[in-house]
Amino acid sequence: MKKLTPQEAVIYLMVMVSASDREMDDVELARIGAIVRTLPAFRGFEQSQTLAVAQDCQKWLQREDGFVEILDAASAAIPEAAHDMAYALAVDIAIANLKVKPEEVRLLQILREKLSLDRATVSAIERAARARHRTF
Question: What is the third-level CATH fold of 6-133?
Answer without folding.
Answer: TerB-like (1.10.3680)
